[in-house]
Amino acid sequence: MNGISNALNGLYDNSGVKVGQHFYWEIAGFQVHAQVLITSWVVIAILLGFAVINVWYPQTIPTAGQNFFEYVLEFIRDLSKTQIGEEYGP
């Protein structure tokens, strides 16, 4: 456990960002929280990659990946319906 702790401390020390401090980028005159932007784009890339892989080769009997992707889409659809209402949802 001590080795993991030392490794994580080394990552924090080398990142250049101290605990409680954040770095911002200015894009088109807007100040953007860089960690949020990077994390959002990584998640978008993973979901798009997963979607492309599962849509590219559809199966008559859905695979585990297709079932998971359908679950994610239904979750997003239901979440949007509860947040903004049935008439504005997808």
TrEMBL record:
Regions crossing the membrane: 32-57
UniProt cross-references to InterPro entries, sorted A to Z: ATP_syn_F0_a_bact/chloroplast
UniProt organism field: Gossypium tomentosum (Hawaiian cotton)
The keyword Transmembrane is assigned to this record: yes
Gene Ontology annotations for the cellular component aspect, listed alphabetically: proton-transporting ATP synthase complex
MF-aspect GO terms: proton transmembrane transporter activity
Protein name: Uncharacterized protein
Lineage: Eukaryota, Viridiplantae, Streptophyta, Embryophyta, Tracheophyta
Keyword list, A-Z: Membrane, Transmembrane, Transmembrane helix
Record-level GO BP terms: proton motive force-driven ATP synthesis
